[in-house]
Write a structure and sequence with these properties.
CATH class of the largest domain: Alpha Beta
CATH superfamily of the largest domain: Acetylglutamate kinase-like
Number of helices: 15
Structural class: alpha/beta
Largest sheet: 8 strands, mixed
Distance between the termini: 27 Å
Order of helices and strands: HEHHEHHEHHEHEEHHEHEHEHEEEHHE
Strand content: 15-25%
Strand order of the largest sheet: 3-4-2-1-5-7-8-6
Radius of gyration: 22 Å
Number of domains: 2
CATH architecture of the largest domain: 3-Layer(aba) Sandwich
Helix content: 25-40%
CATH topology of the largest domain: Carbamate kinase
């Protein structure tokens, strides 16, 4: 299937627009650009493409209104800037979409909404309802209340998680670069644009650089990681330049703009998508070689006998990260025992659990149905 045919078959998009694009590099909202993107989204919406917009820009717009030249370093300053900027940002989107006959809805999320299973499902239901109503949701991280411990970190990640939430076909990340290159095009004249590839190709993270701009928190690396996250639900990703005229409509028309990163495997089951979306783990389980091989090669559950070390303070049902004997994170899962009990039964066969603890909840430390390979 050609790229044009693939894009033509997509029906549900998440479009993420970065701070540098929205705020002219920190000089305040670029009303003309915002009106252009809004018009494209409205026209695509009219053609049957369901679109959820993930918009950065609140902190950057707040900085502009306050006259700040550098991104705040303290959390309370960032939150204050977000509170100030969010007013202008959502009003601008409301005005643009209203001109095209569409309603917009503001949705603010934090990691808490996605970490709690009930709230995760509620957020999914709300977004799906808005899309079904023909409303264009405008999603942002709730920077005004999010602390460092519960922040998603960047809107590239948020875009991928929203893509998982609503089971989108395509995540489009608009940035100030043409796409993903095999080396930094700002430093190397011979850098080549990667037109298409697999989201989980390990080379792409090596190609991606580090930090973003003065007004943004992301970089090309966060975009590649977002593509990998989006792939969990079978969602493809296009990283393209927001400076390209009519970029969204041209992508829809089949033009090979930017970099298309395709999912390699079948979508995860809904419950495993939620587990994979957890950015923070309550603890770590370090596995021996046999347990590592059993999980990676045969898809088995994690038994206590294969655990060498337990770290963190977690309870039954919390998300833990599983590390190989070589120190590489290989999976995340919902653990069946607390950290205290896991410490006591590690390196024991499952048959010994009752004699060690006085009870047995399950023979597995993490059941394979609650285990997601990374």
């Amino acid at each position: 299937m050609s790229r044009a045919e693939f894009v033509a078959r997509t029906r549900r998009w998440v479009v993420k627009i970065g701070s540098a694009l929205l705020t002219r590099g920190g000089a305040g909202l670029d009303q003309a650009a915002l009106a252009d993107w809004g018009g494209q989204i409205a026209r695509l919406h009219g053609q049957g493409v369901e679109i959820v917009l993930v918009s950065s820009g609140a902190v950057a717009e707040g900085m502009s209104r306050m006259g700040w030249k550098q991104r705040p370093k303290t959390l309370f300053e960032k939150q204050a800037a977000a509170a100030i900027g969010q007013m202008s940002l959502i009003q601008a989107y409301e005005d643009v979409f209203r001109q095209h006959g569409y309603l917009a809805a503001q949705v603010l999320l934090t990691h808490d909404e996605l970490a709690n299973r009930r709230r995760y499902l509620n957020a999914r239901n709300t977004l799906n309802a808005l899309v079904d109503f023909g409303v264009i949701p405008v999603v942002n991280e709730n920077d005004t209340v999010a602390t460092n411990e519960i922040r998603l970190g960047d809107n590239d990640t948020l875009g991928a998680l929203v893509g998982n939430l609503i089971e989108a076909d395509l995540l489009i990340i608009l940035t100030d670069q043409q796409g993903l290159y095999d080396k930094d095009p700002r430093q190397y004249a011979d850098a080549s644009l990667i037109s298409q590839g697999q989201a989980e190709d390990e080379r792409f993270l090596a190609f991606a650089g580090g930090a973003g701009t003065v007004v943004g928190s992301g970089g090309m690396r966060t975009k590649v990681l977002a593509a990998q996250r989006a792939a969990h639900s079978g969602c493809a990703t296009i990283i393209a330049s927001g400076h390209e005229s009519g970029v969204l409509e041209r992508i829809r028309a089949g033009e090979p703009l930017g970099t298309l990163l395709l999912p390699e495997r079948q979508p995860l089951a809904a419950r495993k998508q939620w587990i994979a979306s957890q950015l923070q783990s309550r603890g770590e389980l370090w596995l021996d070689e046999g347990a590592t091989r059993a999980i990676l090669e045969t898809g088995r559950s994690l038994l206590p006998i294969g655990v060498l070390r337990v770290e963190g303070d977690f309870g039954r049902g919390d998300v833990v990260s599983c590390y190989s004997h070589e120190g590489r994170i290989i999976a995340k899962g919902l653990v069946n025992y607390s950290a205290l009990d896991a410490e006591r039964i590690k390196q024991h066969p499952s048959g010994d659990i009752e004699s060690v603890l006085g009870y047995v909840y399950a023979p597995e430390l993490v059941h394979r149905d609650n285990l997601v390979l990374l």
